[in-house]
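## retry 2 of 3
previous attempt timed out at serialization; input unchanged, resubmitting
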Amino acid sequence: MNFASDNHYGAHPRIIESLGEANAGSAMAYGGDDWTKKSEEQLSKVFEKEVRSFLVTTGTAANGLALSAITPPYGAVICHAEAHICVDECNSPEMFTGGAKILGLHGPAGKITPAMTEKTLKGFIRGEHDPKPAAVSLTNATELGTVYSPEEVKAISNLIKPRGMKLHMDGARFANAVAGLGVSPADITWKSGVDVMSFGATKNGAMMLEAVVFFDTKLADDFAYRRMRGGQLVSKGRYLGTQMVAYLKNGLWLENAKVANGLAAQLADGLRKLGKIRIPNPVQANEVFAVMPRILNDKLLAKGAKFYDWMPDSLGNGISDDEIFVRFVLSYATPESSVPKLLALIEELQS
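## retry succeeded, writing output
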């Protein structure tokens, strides 16, 4: 019963198979191979426009490098206070941008809103004594398992674009957001004003694979140098390219996300029916956040269930001293039996 992270599960068999196929013979190095070229073509098809894409190995590198292309060292990036770029990447965005300031806003259910973004921008009144507002970064799906709709993304874009700012999307769980919304990838990215995104695959079936995707292709002119300088130009690039080809082929990426989302919905429904457990936020992707009695949490962990406690600040004043805020993450590879097994265990422990 492992619900700790979608990173805890292995790569999809089709991804593993593709690595074996690409391993045969020789191929051009540093992304000059046929698989990498095909992956770039497929990403353009997925997003219904010509994009420029660059494969990297981690989401941290994808975020930091993407932000470096749109934010100067004296710039500021606005994001949610719980966004990975704000609290989980050890100042990597600051390093890659050369010192840009990351400003985290405390928005409800993992989201920032146009109103709070505008209020923050109005605080920049000191000219060159302030960092220059350069970009906004949205995480979709968010760190609390909710999703930004196309309308919500567009509202942020419409607010910042007249100010000369760029819009970045952290899509570590982008597939789950697309599957949850039932919209096209284009609808919640470039059609809604996103300039560049970190397109995640690792959490959803790849071995180690992310892509920096530029919708505003002019922003990518020097990115090859940034990727090389950041240590993310893989010499045997075919092993990244073949993963992306397999990930996108026949919609595997969305197929995996739908499985994970479905299991999350099943778990949330089951938890709601059990007493003394609350689901405070909408379950819109593959994560379920719950408030439960602390004693129940301790008993579940003792019985071998794996999940993480989460920052109670996410709920404001909505939690008491004898409760705990926890996160369950579902993967495409989570055994189907795990959800009913966990629910049965909770019911037994509560009886």
